[in-house]
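Internal tracking record. Fields below are filled automatically when a chain is submitted to the structure queue. Please do not edit lines marked as system-generated. If the sequence contains nonstandard residues, flag them in the REMARKS field before resubmitting.
Queue: standard
Priority: normal
Entity type: single polypeptide chain
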Amino acid sequence: MLLGMLMSLGRFAEFALRATLSATLAPIRRPGDVLRQFERVAWGSLPVVAVAGASIGLVTWLQTRRLLIRYGVEATLPSVLAAAVLVETGPMLASLLVAARLGAGLAAELSSKVLTEELDAAEVLGAPPIPSLVAPRVVACTLAVPLLTVVLDASALLGGLAAELLGGSLSARAFGERCLDSLRLADVVPGTLKTAIFGLIVGLVGCWEGLRSERSTEAIGGSATRGVVASVLLIFAANVALVPLIQWVTAAAGWVG
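SYSTEM-GENERATED OUTPUT FOLLOWS
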């Protein structure tokens, strides 16, 4: 069993390397495919990301304000909300939402092509799957997730602002100014940019699970499930590795602004 897992991991690593190298050339060789996939990923995920962000902002305001009032420091609520959302919650939630949607979608789409033998026909015609199918999808996921993270962050802050205007005492201007009290660019920018790696993971895992699917209708559902589970687990693992690495790099670079 262990040997089989190691062999599968080795095959995935080889696939990931080939797909990543091919993805670097996809915007030049297949710009139309990249744009179509980007629209599918970004535009298709936009509503759920925006709604999730507004919900997170509203709920965080409601829960945190109750605790801060207990200690008489409710004026710090905007900065607490902004720090909680922009540094970690927003990037992770946006990535997990995309993983749930695209991890299943990519795997099911490509496994259905395996079932109908479209991949075999395309390869015979000189269109191997990695440059023609995988690379545009990987590029689209890598570019879309950071932008969706920005949308989720903005929606969360707007949700918190709406709650503050309805049930709090701060004006919109004061709320906006206090959101920035305890944040630096070094806190926000790396956390947003790391989601490009999460998007890369979603694209690679979803395509990998789809391409290695068996030729049966039952296998399509199994590929979709594995695509979601594997994407989510790898995002959590990558985040554990990236957070201390980002902190070390920013400290070593002296980036404090």
